[in-house]
TrEMBL record:
GO terms for biological process: transmembrane transport. It comes from Lacrimispora saccharolytica (strain ATCC 35040 / DSM 2544 / NRCC 2533 / WM1). The keyword Oxidoreductase does not apply. Residues 84-300 form the ABC transmembrane type-1 domain. This is Binding-protein-dependent transport systems inner membrane component. Pfam families: BPD_transp_1. Belongs to the binding-protein-dependent transport system permease family. The chain crosses the membrane at residues 27-53, 88-109, 121-141, 173-198, 282-301. The lineage of its organism: Bacteria, Bacillati, Bacillota, Clostridia, Lachnospirales. It comes from the Bacteria. The keyword Membrane applies. It is found in: Cell membrane.
Amino acid sequence: MAKERETTKKESSGKTLQAMKRKREPYLYLLPTIVLMLLLLIIPICMVVRYSFFDNVIVKKDPVFAGLKNYAMILSDKTFFVAVKNTLFFVGASVIVHMFLGMLFAILLNTRYIGINLKAFFRVIYVLPWMFTASVIAILWKMMMNPNGIINYLLQITNLTSSHIEWLGSRNFALFSVTLINIWAGYPFYMVSILAGLQGIPTDLYEASAIDGANAVQQFIRITIPQLKPIIISLFMLDFVWTIQQFALIWMTTGGGPINATEMISTFIYKRGFSKYQYSQASASAVILLVVCSVIAVFYVRHQRERD
């Protein structure tokens, strides 16, 4: 009897050890990613938040705790509010037109009136802007928007303008121009996502609605939009966060100029930190941007959970 009890105890302890190993295994697989996220994401964010509460860090050897002084200076800076206004226009126009163009091209590529080979050709053409890096896009559009570039040439031969327009060098056109470039570069993401959503909608819904007498517009409003709603909301939120953080395209086309005409929050933070060496104010600006993006991220996660 004693031997049997010992064997049963050994078996139960062996089972518990196996169970513990199974529970630990997923965390061991995740450990490299967790360490990388800790080193490259969590710790830098905590450092930036800490810097925002001190008098000019990095430049000074012994920075003094300044409380909310840096935030007050940023929120009373006229250039910051110019950057916020430009960013709101840039982000709002980009997100709305991205959705419109993405939906339009996705519907065109999903229609049954175009052949398979022609669809494949147009898919390659439409998705090309998404393949280019920010530096390639910036160089390409700077050449086209040059006063002697192709855009001014086409406008002149069609008698739409008689002068050479400084698209990226004029305060009147610079913000519109960089927004146009960003729209061109970003719409393929919407197009590909919406096209995947359209192809996942059952054709039975359209056939049943056609029998009931619904036309194409009614089918689009009553079937297509509700079926694509989860994808559209996710795209809006992701695009908002990505566009509000856009830096490379702005910096390589206008640098935030001329005279702050295209100054964005991202370029404002960069200039404060690496041109004026006011790292604490740059950190405070970055924390404000982080809070805005975090609010959108919370809504995105909640929407994903509801969708699941």
